[in-house]
């Protein structure tokens, strides 16, 4: 058993080597970008318009952040009040 701060490999991991965890994340990322995206597009193509828009807009939020809605209230005699709604 090693003491806190010690390691079984005193030289550490070789420069440029990649951990197994990183390899697994890269593999998952490759799947999502390639096969997963192809499958998602196939499924989207089979949906009716309303269902397509629902899921398409949900996925779009991951590519483009949702914009905040801005409303203006007031008149010429009072200061303008700006209320912002949404994810900021």
Explain how this protein is built.
- It is a single chain.
- By secondary structure, the protein is α+β, with helices and mostly antiparallel strands.
- The chain has one domain (about 20-85).
- It has helices spanning about 20-45, 50-60, and strands at about 70-75, 80-85.
- A two-stranded antiparallel sheet has the order 1-2.
SSE layout and pairings?
Blueprint lengths: L19 H27 L2 H12 L8 E5 L7 E5 L3
Summarize the structure.
This protein has two helices and two strands, in the order H-H-E-E.
Q: In percent terms, what proportion of residues is strand?
A: 5-15%
Spatial order of the strands in the main sheet? Answer: 1-2
As a percent range, the share of helical residues equals: 40-55%
Number of domains: 1
Please give the count of helices.
2
End-to-end span in angstroms?
Answer: 49 Å
Output mean pLDDT: 82
Unreliable stretches covering 5 or more consecutive residues = none
Helical/strand content category: alpha+beta
The strand count comes to 2
Oligomer kind: single chain
The arrangement of helices and strands along the chain is HHEE
Shape: flat
- Radius of gyration, CA atoms, in whole angstroms: 25 Å
Largest sheet: 2 strands, antiparallel
Short key terms for the protein model shown above:
88 residues; 2 strands; alpha+beta; two-stranded antiparallel ribbon
């Amino acid at each position: 058993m090693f003491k806190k701060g010690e390691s079984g490999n005193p030289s550490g991991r070789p420069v440029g080597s990649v951990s197994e965890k990183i390899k697994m994340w890269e593999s998952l990322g490759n799947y999502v970008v390639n096969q997963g995206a192809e499958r998602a597009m196939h499924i989207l193509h089979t949906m009716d318009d309303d269902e397509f828009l629902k899921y398409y807009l949900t996925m779009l939020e991951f590519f483009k952040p949702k914009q905040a809605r801005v409303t203006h209230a007031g008149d010429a005699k009072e200061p303008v009040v700006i209320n912002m709604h949404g994810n900021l």
